[in-house]
Specification:
6-stranded mixed β-sheet, GH92 mannosidase fold, 19 helices, Beta-galactosidase, Chain A, domain 5
Length: 760
């Protein structure tokens, strides 16, 4: 009896162990990993302008894809993408799997679709009317598609070069698309099964199966796959040659299994996102946070291919010398927070990107630093030359492994030899010469005819935003000049850094356009004046936003406004001032100025630093309140969870920083403003073996106010800290509460650093 009883006990114990082990394994297998918090659909429906795109890619990879459709409301896909060559651009090449007869074969198919699932490392969709299951996974310069045909009919695959050529022989596919007169993208692909027939497709004509090459605009090839039920295509891309595209494929993908590539991509994303670990907060807040972090890796992209790269800046193929070449950056958007975030968590990449800027300049005719470097060259959009801020920000924070003298030469040329006119890359105009002589950019009255032929017909002069942006650029340039020992240049550029004062209207407290005689333009409304996008005087945003566009010198802005009290009142009024018109009328001429809280626009980059300005005037609790409110109002885990254009990390980096509780108000100053972390614990891997940790005791939706702080074990009463405080690791410890502390961080001597008021 005892033995039988013991056997029963052993059997029962074994069963319990099995059940517990099974439960543990199940929990472990279903536990969320960091990449599972990324929701690429956030913001896919725009509030007004361009939505976010659900990009499938590896971090900073050359190959990126997303479904081609207007936004997430569309129930049609325009073919299947092969590679996106420019952020928010159309796909190069296109794939169209088809079933049926030859009469329904077109160069690109519009698909009804369902059951779509997108992660950073995989795309899955069911083309429901055609009954074709599609699976895709990316590598860095290659990708893999599988097509499962559900119907028992003839199956086809159409490859469209859009504008170029595509050819096929056996199971090999080769193609080239012309992006412009000097920049091409090449594709080399392999099918896991040989095609039965190859034909040329043009327009709505029947395929010509006597041709195995299609050349010209919208010409395509069709592969007749017979009754094969599943076909897999793996392919590489290149900006150098078809042969290089083949090498890129062979280096990265040696399988026809989409799962293998997706699994590898998942591991890469988990490792990348693990550079910032957070605890606390809600699941939705983690979704927003890690999705924002993922978006900061959409650009720049590394286009080095086996130690070589094609540069559109001189149309040549170069060896990269061991330093990857990065491009595709809209610096006007990304200098504010994306580049500063990379300085913290990807310092090696940031150095390589700055070295890429320098090479771009050296390869360009005038050797000017680029402003909007893309795969096809510098498109020079928006205004300003903010690469100088990116370069100095990295250098002053200790990333010095690049040639600062070369960078200075190109930055100096871009600011002193090139016109400041928006969307132009030309030599100095009469307006630039006037600015250099008189210290401001002259403005025209609302209906006054343009007198300068070089002014862009749509973008206009943007006279105030040009002065404000150039003042900041000159301050950054002056810091580089000083570090290199160029005393005369330092004095010159520091003087120019105060140019914003020449358009400050003391009566109104706004930056106000002046005509060539020096008179302020009247009548004037800081909400509406300036035409479409306020571009006569500002840029995409109105005078209320540009009232605060003195990133390098908030101290002087406080001085201009008559002291901290007036400064605070003006800040508060920015968030309270009504639109003054119906939304229809307001947005009809200020469509970029969305995400409104009063006249503040959460949707556009010049606004990002504004909530932090309370720190400079002794009311850090208002920064804490504003930041938490803005994050809750405008950044959500849903299809409309981004308030405006997300320009490749520009706005997302603001979310990453602000969710962690600090922000770089002045790139070029090695300092960070403290806000209000939404997580209880944040650990940031600084890439040098060190960790910067933020502990926010009691942090919650209600407990958003800092009561006390310690930095590296010492009591801390400043609403900011320096880069030196954290560069080798450190700990910021905050005690949070639900009521504002009117004592912490409020002393006048403890405000964040800025340039100083000008001695008058």
């Amino acid at each position: 009896m005892k033995k039988t009883h013991n056997k029963r006990l052993i059997l029962l114990g074994s069963l319990c162990c099995f059940v517990l082990t099974s439960m543990f394994c199940q929990q472990r297998s279903t536990k969320k990993e960091l990449v599972d918090y990324v929701n690429p659909y956030i913001g896919n429906i725009s509030h007004l302008l361009v939505p976010t795109y659900p990009t499938v890619h590896l971090p900073n990879a050359m190959l990126r894809v997303y479904p081609e459709r207007s936004d997430a409301t569309s129930d049609l896909l325009y073919g299947l993408p092969v590679a996106v060559t420019s952020h928010r651009g159309a796909s190069a090449f296109s794939l169209s799997p088809l079933q049926g007869n030859q009469a329904h074969i077109f160069p690109v198919k519009n698909y009804s679709y369902d059951l779509e699932k997108i992660t950073p490392h995989r795309y899955s969709v069911f083309l429901d009317e055609d009954e074709i299951q599609v699976e895709f996974a990316p590598s860095y310069q290659s990708g893999i598609y599988s097509f499962t045909y559900k119907k028992a009919e003839n199956n086809f695959l159409v490859i469209n070069s859009r504008n170029g050529y595509v050819a096929s022989e056996n199971n090999k596919i080769k193609g080239c698309q012309y992006l412009d007169d000097k920049t091409f993208i090449y594709m080399y692909g392999e099918l896991d099964k040989p095609s039965f027939k190859v034909g040329k497709v043009t327009g709505e004509e029947a395929p010509d199966f006597s041709q195995n090459k299609a050349d010209g605009e919208n010409a395509a090839l069709v592969l007749d796959l017979g009754t094969e039920k599943k076909v897999t295509l793996r392919y590489g891309i290149s900006f150098i040659s078809i042969e290089q595209a083949q090498k890129n494929l062979e280096r990265e993908i040696q399988t026809y299994n989409v799962d293998d590539i997706s699994r590898a991509g998942r591991e890469i994303w988990n490792k990348t996102l693990n550079k910032i670990q957070v605890k606390g907060g809600t699941e939705d807040q983690k979704n927003v946070f890690y999705t924002s972090l993922y978006r900061t890796y959409e650009r720049m992209i590394n286009i080095s291919e086996d130690g070589r790269y094609f540069s559109a800046f001189d149309g040549q193929i170069h060896t990269d010398g061991g330093t990857p070449f990065y491009t595709d950056d809209w610096i006007w958007d990304t200098y504010r927070a994306t580049h500063p975030l990379r300085i913290l968590i990807e310092p090696k990449k940031e150095i390589d990107m700055i070295r890429s800027f320098i090479r771009m300049a050296q390869q360009s005719p005038h050797q000017w630093m680029p402003t909007f470097p893309e795969v096809t060259g510098d498109s020079h959009r928006m205004n300003g030359n903010h690469a100088v801020a990116t370069i100095w920000d990295a250098y002053c924070k200790g990333l010095t492994d690049f040639n600062l003298s070369q960078a200075y030469h190109s930055c100096r040329g871009a600011i002193t030899e090139k016109t400041l006119l928006p969307w132009k890359k030309d030599s100095l105009t009469e307006l630039d010469i006037f600015y250099q002589e008189h210290g401001y950019f002259p403005s025209l009255r609302e209906n006054e005819e343009e007198t300068c032929s070089e002014v862009h017909s749509y973008e206009r002069r943007q006279s105030i935003s040009v002065i404000l942006g150039n003042s900041y650029d000159n301050w950054c340039l002056a810091q580089i000049a000083q570090s290199l020992g160029h005393k005369e240049d330092y004095d010159r550029f520091m003087k120019m850094s105060y140019s914003y004062r020449n358009v400050y209207n003391k009566k109104t407290g706004f930056f106000h356009p002046r005509d060539s005689k020096g008179d302020f333009i009247e009548p004037f409304d800081y909400r509406y004046s300036g035409g479409m996008g306020a571009r006569n005087y500002y840029g995409e945003n109105n005078g209320w936003i540009y009232r605060w566009d003195v990133q390098h010198n908030p101290a002087d802005l406080i001085n201009l406004m008559g002291g901290a009290d007036n400064f605070i009142n003006n800040l508060n009024q920015t968030f309270r001032e009504p639109l003054g018109q119906s939304k229809f009328d307001f947005y009809s001429h200020l469509p970029d100025h969305t995400g409104n809280v009063g006249q503040f626009s959460m949707a556009n980059e010049p606004s990002l630093h504004i909530p932090y300005l309370y720190n400079y005037a002794g009311q850090p609790w208002m920064t804490q309140k504003r930041i938490r409110t803005l994050l809750n109002q405008w950044f959500r885990n849903d299809l409309m969870g981004v308030p405006g254009d997300e320009d490749g990390g520009g706005m997302s980096a603001f979310v990453v920083f602000s969710s962690m509780g600090f922000y770089p108000v002045t790139p070029g100053s090695p300092s960070y403003n403290i806000g209000s972390p939404i997580f209880e614990n944040i650990k940031i891997d600084l890439g040098n073996g060190a960790i910067f940790e933020i502990i926010a005791h009691n942090a919650s939706d209600d407990n958003k106010y800092i009561q006390s702080a310690k930095l590296n074990g010492k009591l801390w009463d400043k609403p900011w800290f320096s880069h030196d405080d954290i560069k080798n690791g450190g700990k910021l410890e905050l005690v949070m509460g639900d009521k504002a502390s009117h004592s912490w961080g409020t002393k006048a001597e403890n405000v964040p650093p800025s340039a100083q008021p000008l001695n008058e």
